């Protein structure tokens, strides 16, 4: 289930603190070499910040979108979970669908630090929904551990996403 992030400031900061306290577990999350405390964003012109929660209001993680409304695109996504959860994965997909079909953005750009376990998931998502792997920037991210790593960049367009979503749903109904 999704909710607005501003209601969960302490849970978000606890999650971000665990990133700092366990840099090897979360080392591929931050590409700037540091972590800031979360302060709720008061404008939705530049940011849409959501959290994933269970039905009992248990916090699962964050899904943040940084926006460029002048070109009607999402410039980046920040996705971080405090535990493996099917609900969290479903909520990530819901946010992507909302960005395209509720908020009407035309493009979503995002990246992953090479070596992150999420890279395979992102590659499958991009393939399934006809997005594009733009390329990899070499030695482009400083991790909390001091390592410098490569960063892979992706983009996906609303029309490609919706067309693929329709085709995927049509193929599922054929299998029934």
Q: How would you characterize this protein structure?
A:
33% of the residues lie in helices and 32% in strands. It is globular. A 7-stranded mixed sheet has the order 1-2-3-4-5-7-6, with helices on both faces. By secondary structure, it is of the alpha+beta class. It has helices at residues 9-21, 86-101, 118-128, 158-175; strands at residues 2-4, 47-53, 59-68, 73-81, 107-113, 132-142, 148-157. The model has no long low-confidence stretch (mean pLDDT 90). Strand 6 (132-142) and strand 7 form a beta hairpin. The two termini are 27 Å apart.
In short:
With 176 residues, the protein is an alpha+beta fold.
Question: What overall geometry do the principal axes of the alpha carbons give?
Answer: globular
Give the name of the CATH superfamily.
Answer: Gcn5-related N-acetyltransferase (GNAT)
Any idea how many domains? 1
Largest β-sheet summary:
7 strands, mixed
Strand content: 25-35%
Count of beta strands: 7
Low-confidence stretches: none
Overall pLDDT confidence: 90
Give me the secondary-structure category. alpha+beta
């Amino acid at each position: 289930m999704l909710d607005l992030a501003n209601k969960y400031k302490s849970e978000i900061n606890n999650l971000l603190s665990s990133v700092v306290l366990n840099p090897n577990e979360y080392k591929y999350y931050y590409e700037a070499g540091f972590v800031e405390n979360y302060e709720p964003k008061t404008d939705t012109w530049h940011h849409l910040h959501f959290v994933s929660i269970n039905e009992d209001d248990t916090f699962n993680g964050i899904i943040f979108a940084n926006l460029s409304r002048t070109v009607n695109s999402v410039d980046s996504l920040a996705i971080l979970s405090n535990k493996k959860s099917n609900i969290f994965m479903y909520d990530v997909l819901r946010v992507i669908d909302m960005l395209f079909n509720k908020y009407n953005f035309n493009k979503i750009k995002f990246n992953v630090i090479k070596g992150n376990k999420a890279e395979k998931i992102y590659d499958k998502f991009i393939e399934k929904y006809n997005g594009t792997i733009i390329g990899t920037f070499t030695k482009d991210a400083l991790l909390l551990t001091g390592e410098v790593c490569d960063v892979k960049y992706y983009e996906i367009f609303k029309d490609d996403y919706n067309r693929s979503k329709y085709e995927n749903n049509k193929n599922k109904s054929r299998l029934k």
